Amino acid sequence: MLNLILFGPPGAGKGTQSDLLMKQYNLTYISTGETLRNEIKMGTPLGLQAKNIIESGGLVDDEIIVQIIGNALQSEKNSDGFLFDGFPRTYVQAYILDGLFTGLQTSLSKIIILDISDEECTKRLLQRAKEQDRSDDNVAVIRKRLQEYHNKTYPLLDFYKDTDKLVKVNGLGTTQEVFDRINHQIIEEINSKPVNIMVYGYPGSGKTTQAKKLADEFNLTYISTSELLRTEIQTNSVLAKQIQPYLDKGLLVPDEIVIRLIEKKLRNTDGLKRGYVFKGYPRTMVQAYILDGIMKKKNCAINCVINLQVPHLQLVKRLDARAKTDERMPYDDSAATIVARLEEHAQRNDAIVNYYRKSQILVDVDGQGCKNDVYERIKNHVHRAIRNLR
After folding, report:
1. 296 falls in which pLDDT band (50, 70, 90)?
2. 2-27+79-192 architecture in CATH?
């Protein structure tokens, strides 16, 4: 999940940037004041408690605040993260937020500070007061609000200063210029997360092309079992001699051998890249379970399964065209072998797709059109999957 805190003095443009961030990344806006008012309006037990305290002239304590914020976080199921405004305000609340995130099995992604001088804020607020006829935005009030911001915010930032979460963004310029600076920081955060992807689809759906594009852009190790087998054959190793008879007869290489090749690839590339992209593996339910086990041994998992969808007639045309190029595969020789290959895949397809769909990590992607258009569709889904990583 993408969880952000946006700090900035009055007049820095937090409201405008918050709206843009929520729209761009499907975030839920969490404001202490707004959340508290909603609880009171709905007449919940917590809301009634808070109302009694406020009406008696008291301040709502952290015990109530933490429950209200916790309810707001747990009730939102459709967003890809949260954007906080006005929380946390103190050291205690910063620890509270950490605890709330731990309960949700997620964490804070970034704290973005809109860096802008008091003089510029004052100028903006006075202009706004003039345009909106707001007598409350005078120099004395503005100075007090800015002082309150500094008194409360700076000590809180000390809580996060030794982490890599804190980033200052120049708040001067047009709305779009400021948003682009913020967005740059968020994209860097997203691109730093480890991720493991699987590209699935029928023969001819474009798995190889798209998986290699993902590997290049997202700094992933590309893993194709067919390439692993071909590479091993060239080594003339003991394992290669076990593999060759199966390839000569056009038979599937036993899972015991394929597992060793995958584990060897993982060992040799461990730590070199951000993660892995698997092309065309698993091909069976047994292999799906095997892959889960292999990834678990590395303390990770498949985070996103791209299911490329192309009509069967289009697949036949693509494979027939590929047979006339240097990229031809053994099963591209004739229409009969192509159809047999597609039928073989169809027998396993539903079980594998349903397996990953139940885990809510599979997305169907239209594989028709030019390669770049298809890749853009895939990339959008991958970016969202990465944002949703807990």
Report:
1. very high
2. 3-Layer(aba) Sandwich (3.40)
